Amino acid sequence: MSNDYQVIFSGEGGQGLVLAGTILAEAAAIFEGKYATQTVDYGIASRGGFAMSEVKISDEEIDCPELIEPDYIVALTEDAFNRFEKEAGKSVIIFDSDAFSPALEGDNIKGCPFTTTLRRLAEEYGNKARINVLAIGAVLGLKEIVSLQAMRKVFEKNFGAKNADINMKVLQAGIEMTRS
Amino acid sequence: MSNDYQVIFSGEGGQGLVLAGTILAEAAAIFEGKYATQTVDYGIASRGGFAMSEVKISDEEIDCPELIEPDYIVALTEDAFNRFEKEAGKSVIIFDSDAFSPALEGDNIKGCPFTTTLRRLAEEYGNKARINVLAIGAVLGLKEIVSLQAMRKVFEKNFGAKNADINMKVLQAGIEMTRS
Amino acid sequence: MSSELIKFGQGNEACAEGAFKAGARFYAGYPITPSSEIAEIASRRLPQLGGIYLQMEDELGSMAAIIGASASGVKSFTATSGPGFSLMQENLGVAIIGEVPCVVIDVQRSGPSTGLATKPAQADIMQARWGTHGDHAIVVLYPSTVQECFDLTVEAFNIAEMLRSPVILLTDEVVGHMREKFIIRDQVKVIDRKKPTGPVEKYLPYQPDEDGIPPMAAFGDKYRMRITSSTHGPDGFTNSNPVNARQMIERLYKKIMDRADEITYIKEYMVDDADILIVACGYTARVAKAAVKQLRNEGIKAGLFHPLTIWPFPEKQLKKAALDAEKILVPEMNLGQLVYEVERILKEKEVFGLHKSNGQPLFVREIVDKVKEVAK
Amino acid sequence: MSSELIKFGQGNEACAEGAFKAGARFYAGYPITPSSEIAEIASRRLPQLGGIYLQMEDELGSMAAIIGASASGVKSFTATSGPGFSLMQENLGVAIIGEVPCVVIDVQRSGPSTGLATKPAQADIMQARWGTHGDHAIVVLYPSTVQECFDLTVEAFNIAEMLRSPVILLTDEVVGHMREKFIIRDQVKVIDRKKPTGPVEKYLPYQPDEDGIPPMAAFGDKYRMRITSSTHGPDGFTNSNPVNARQMIERLYKKIMDRADEITYIKEYMVDDADILIVACGYTARVAKAAVKQLRNEGIKAGLFHPLTIWPFPEKQLKKAALDAEKILVPEMNLGQLVYEVERILKEKEVFGLHKSNGQPLFVREIVDKVKEVAK
Amino acid sequence: MIHLKKNRCKSCGICIEFCPKNVFDAAVDGTPIVAREEDCSYCRLCEKRCPDFVIKVEGEK
Amino acid sequence: MIHLKKNRCKSCGICIEFCPKNVFDAAVDGTPIVAREEDCSYCRLCEKRCPDFVIKVEGEK
Amino acid sequence: MAFQVEDYLREDKLPHIWCAGCGHGITVRALVEALAGLQIDPTSVVVTTGIGCFGKADDYLNTHCFHGTHGRALAFATGIKVVKPELTVFALMGDGDSVTIGGNHLIHAARRNVDITAIVANNQNYGMTGGQLSATTPEGSRTTTSVYGTAEPEMDLCSLVAAAGASFVARGTVYHVTQLQKIIQDAIQHKGFSFVEVVTMCPTYFGRYNWNQTLIERMNWLKENAVSKARYDKLPPEKKESAFMIGKLVEKDTEDFNTKYQRILQKAQNQG
Amino acid sequence: MAFQVEDYLREDKLPHIWCAGCGHGITVRALVEALAGLQIDPTSVVVTTGIGCFGKADDYLNTHCFHGTHGRALAFATGIKVVKPELTVFALMGDGDSVTIGGNHLIHAARRNVDITAIVANNQNYGMTGGQLSATTPEGSRTTTSVYGTAEPEMDLCSLVAAAGASFVARGTVYHVTQLQKIIQDAIQHKGFSFVEVVTMCPTYFGRYNWNQTLIERMNWLKENAVSKARYDKLPPEKKESAFMIGKLVEKDTEDFNTKYQRILQKAQNQG
Ligand SMILES: Cc1ncc(C[n+]2csc(CCOP(=O)(O)OP(=O)(O)O)c2C)c(N)n1
Ligand SMILES: Cc1ncc(C[n+]2csc(CCOP(=O)(O)OP(=O)(O)O)c2C)c(N)n1
Ligand code: SF4
Ligand code: SF4
Ligand code: SF4
Ligand code: SF4
Ligand code: SF4
Ligand code: SF4
Ligand SMILES: [Mg+2]
Ligand SMILES: [Mg+2]
User: Fold this and answer.
1) CA atoms within a 13 Å half-sphere pointing along the CA-CB vector of D24
2) CATH superfamily of G5-271
3) By CB atoms within 10 Å of each CB, which of A29, A141, B19, B162 scores lowest?
4) Which residues of C touch H108 (CB under 8 A)?
5) pLDDT per residue over G79-90, tens digit each?
6) Predicted-assembly ipTM surpassing the 0.95 threshold
7) CATH number for the domain that contains residue B166
8) From residue C83, how far is each of A1, C123, C336, D99, D177 by CA, in Å?
């Protein structure tokens, strides 16, 4: 199974994690002709609490959407981080270093200033700057598992041409967080 | 299985056939210490249509209430008669000769003037004279499968001492219909 | 002085009397043929006993009301038939997960849907086991005589109280409406639910004792009681932790399945040397017994295994009874329900079904003939 | 020009699109997690297609409304989850005995009762078969991918129309909410119910043709249409004659059971030389497939039998697939349901269950481990 | 003309009692007898009040 | 005394807006700051209108 | 071609199963008279029924029929009418059917204003199952499940349905047959949900336990106690106890569901 | 010993799960204030709830609790109250819970007059499942299942329940908290079925699709549009459209079910 990618977006209800997973998977599935699955685990919808979204991207048909060894895990809350910290090593964990500072650290645990970056972007683009797009960017910054052209197309399809620009900028900001 | 009796009361909803069966079976079970079962088959209750009540009386515990070869079948309507006429021979069929005249006749098919007898009794006792008690009497007239003492007791229990007298009279009229 | 009472009455009446004797003091229901006599008797007798009869607006509400009353400490029951039983399925689940003892009587009639309201069937056997959504186990008792209606209703309450679980008493139109002599026994064993005893602050409504059953406070007790239909922790608050969920769901299942033997009632007739074993319940068991007698008279070694507890199905007991039989016949007033379970359990045997679904009970002759056919 | 559409979306969305493609133009339902997306899509898309979305006051009414609409000639469906599915059981019986085609989607969640509304389970498998009272047979399809959600929903309507019968499409929270690429196929085979053709006065709504299926007029046609929930004769009037009742009840049963092969869909993966055969459906079948791959990599000869039609259970097909396997494993997101059926069918095999009921799906590792344990 | 499909009649007595023109008499079995048809006003009330679809009144005054 | 269990506050702003005595200011995160407690009339409306059980007002005027 | 009363009846199914003096036959008569009065083609009529004695009405009607489950007639009817607005759709229900078990469908059908004509034969108890208590059994009455007299007040069907939003509400009796036919005609012609309560008689059960009068006396009782709104308002309080209003109680001109839904269809298709 | 507001709360369970600005917390607050106001022992209180966002209320109450199924809270409560008349029994329901799926229990509980206090948090949609249409969604509003605007008129809860026979009917809002507390206190003290509708806010769904105003503006909207009966009657027609009545709408002195049932018990036992 060459070119397989497995990504988790985790945090709490309301952060748009489902959308992050959907967008990323759709970009791969529809605009790059790959196979992709996206699944969710959530509690009482949209009322806080742990939530996550899992994405699997592959060149081949996907037997099972279950992630066996996720490549990247984005953890936007401390709770989410704690659930996944034991995966570090097998997976790269990206967390919001503005929101909490984990005991554990290391090569595979990457803190990124999600909150402050978002605040900065929000000043420029208002509430159209979303943390979930930033999170996708953070993953793409480590590895371009989906092309930027595909991302633009998926933004255009889902948010319209006008908003695609903004989203690409937010995405870019995310990419920069992890590339740097 | 010595001393087993099987009786069917059949006719239409509203004639009190269930009560006939119940009374007879209860007399045997409670006031003669025998075993007895009573079952029913009916359509939409109390709105006409074929109805019947089956009684089994035995000295021994009864495995199954199903009647295999009924000894006596009372048929108060033509419909009921037609359903059972093929049993004649194995069973004795008692029918209301005021209501219809069957094609078949013979030793085991006994016509009794239920309707006229009832009318006569009604003149004396009003609507307390019931066709179902008459029907029990008709059976007892052929064979005293339950003693008259037991019948009196069951009447007393179910209709009170006062009405027991009347019912015994109606019963007697029934007995006379078949004895004669 | 014994105040035992000998009565001549219907299966439905005996069920009602059994309930009263077991201590039931609340009935909520919605009339339906062929169960309505139970409601009618309850409406007359309960007030005499200081209890309450409530006719609810529908079966959904009836099931809910008996759960509410039982959670308040009063033994409660309802009675219905197929269509109403279907409507009770959702709230039956509340009694299961909420662990609220209660007894539901289903007097089976001929379906599907409205079908033939006054005609018998045994076609809710699988529904009784599987009718409500989600994972669960359930106890289902099925009497075949009027006396058993009385005895098993008492037992149904006892099991319900012992296990903190709803119990279904399944009967059928024939059993419900047939009349026989029965004894309103005086000296019946009556089990009451376990009450909490520890300090009030420490009480957790779903914290089981070693036996897997949590003591049950009633509304109004000094112990704060919580009943919930959600997957919950010992405190009765929603809890979606998978470890907790597994524990809860499995405990509910095991408290019943692990006690299967304790709550299993069976009757056997001439099974020891039977070549062909008939497995039948309810009214059909009585027809089968008569058939066995007749077959024996004719020299055919038939026997009868008659479960009174049909769920959990008495697997072990059946295996034992069937040990030496070559063939098995399962007559039912349906198109095949119990037969599947028997087939599953008696893998090595040849299992035959005799299915009748036309509004009539099975007849002795039909079973006799089928046994002869199968015996060949 | 093909107007096929490639979409990336949820199982629930694919179900809805499949329904529209099959010709469904009426949806009545009551929202419930995890099925609500189907209602939401129907409420948006049906009016675009000239169809009607109705949100009913409850699930009892929803089931009734789709039956009424279908009897009026408009293909209809609803979607729900466990609690609502329980509430639909009574009226499901009307569709069965009244022979009104319609499709009921049950997206299974973790129970019993309210349970965990957002978590998956496969614990309504037996309820789907036995949930409504009285004798009946039913067709239940169960997709495992988003594409199958589309395809099997189309198929569900086709079977419903072909058999004049309700069809249940069972899915689970994982399948319903997962997103994958799927094709809204353009060239799907769409079957429509048989219409009467003879003289108006002669039409009998329940007089079957040779195939056991009566042609179906719609309300408003010149043929007078009667739908009834009672046991009836060919004319649609209540009929309690035992011969008629048997014919009616058995025909309803046989029209489905005799066509089991025609409506059976299965998938097999590496069964030919499998020593251990896994039987799994829905999302679990996908986990099992991944497990088979991994086991094969490790040199263990596992195979997968994956029924898409789960009722009538593909008995013959399973027997064939299991011919050479020594052991059978049935993993399920429940405490054991399908495993009973498999045990019953594969009498000579050693059948093992792998049961998980905690709000989580089964994991690949769990199946792999269990196979290894069992294989020993 | 007042037609009676007597096989359907259940002898409830409504037609007899409530005919404004007292057209009917009661037979011994309680069924109606058209005794005074000439008095009939053709109001059809008997027809409409008969629970058993026994009566059909034809004609007008 | 006005006590705030701030960990419960969801920044809805109701207390700030509807205090008849304008006792609160809003912090940057939208939570209330008790700015002018001396103006408080102890009407407890803020307590009763807070959807999140954040506020407890003690005292009387 | 003019339709006769007989064209709406299945005369081959008569005599019907109802008891002597049961009011259900009178109500069915009024219905077919109304259909004939309006000359509605029987093949454009769908009658839905529930389960109960009155629920058997469809057996005697030569229209399209749907005999559903107890309490759900209106829900079936809703499915029918919304997809086939051109049909005349009825729901015939008993009191148990309509408001006891079926109350939820009743109030929401009234609110939703789907153009269905609901006719409830209120005989104050459950005839079919042997005379048990219903939600319309007058407080204190005796039934087979309330031998000590019921402790529950009865539901006023018309008030309930009006409060739920019904655009046409009327009450008639089986004594006042001419008015009843007229009411049903008006109900059919009213566009929107129409509700007709028919106060009727179950001599076999409710009568036996409660009337203390003969069937004929009961008819006279209906005659005397059923009064127009105008007369009712003028009655002295002591008379009001047993008296009740008949006639049209609500008649509002509000758009029915199907008409409104047309706009939704347009909106959706324009957007699409 | 005087009970404090905190004695009725499970503070350990806070913060609750409701969204920022959700009115459900305000309603629960009014309830516990009312209980404290009347000094009712929490162990003599049973709170039944249905399923929905408001159905989660029992999680925060330190009374006896019964968290049942969607729409059935009143049926559970009925079973509780009839066997334990000494307890104070509540049914807390959402609009979906109470009158959409649960309408049948609502009207019959009102009719039966069992001494239960029903509190309905009417947020005009189904919060819990993602903002779908409810029977109280105002006609024309947009929800996740009525993107083109709903074609169904909304149910007036108070009128319905009054018509069904409720002996106490009142309406409050989450803006008018002092009045709301008082209403709930009166409802508790009223012997018989008491019904309190609380007009509340679901900013997350109903608000997002329909308000065109902020949460604060919505509170002000409630302040302006909720008026006393006296004031309502005097409003000019154009103002009446969005305005609605608050306060006590019905208060009748009728015997509750349990009191009546006492007489049945006596009668039965004397006869026995
Ligand atoms: C779900 C369900 N519950 C109960 C019944 C039994 N049942 C049939 S008819 C009926 C009552 C009928 O009363 P009503 O609707 O007033 O009609 P009537 O017979 O008085 O005309 C009942 C309780 C049923 N068929 N289905
Ligand atoms: C039988 C059944 N149908 C549907 C559901 C799904 N469901 C849960 S809550 C709810 C609606 C809640 O709305 P409401 O009662 O108004 O409360 P809110 O969430 O708005 O406070 C629904 C439809 C369910 N749990 N059970
Ligand atoms: S039509 Fe009128 S007047 Fe003539 S018999 Fe009938 S009721 Fe009497
Ligand atoms: S009204 Fe009809 S049923 Fe009654 S007596 Fe007259 S004809 Fe016979
Ligand atoms: S108690 Fe009243 S005055 Fe004081 S802060 Fe609160 S709302 Fe303002
Ligand atoms: S009202 Fe409560 S939740 Fe809202 S801002 Fe004030 S303290 Fe915070
Ligand atoms: S039981 Fe009552 S309602 Fe039923 S047919 Fe007889 S009189 Fe009519
Ligand atoms: S979804 Fe609506 S009702 Fe539910 S908690 Fe959020 S704001 Fe409140
Ligand atoms: Mg009635
Ligand atoms: Mg709501």
Assistant:
1) 35
2) Thiamin diphosphate (ThDP)-binding fold, Pyr/PP domains (3.40.50.970)
3) B162
4) 56-57, 61
5) 999 999 999 999
6) yes
7) 3.40.920.10
8) 53, 12, 20, 17, 33
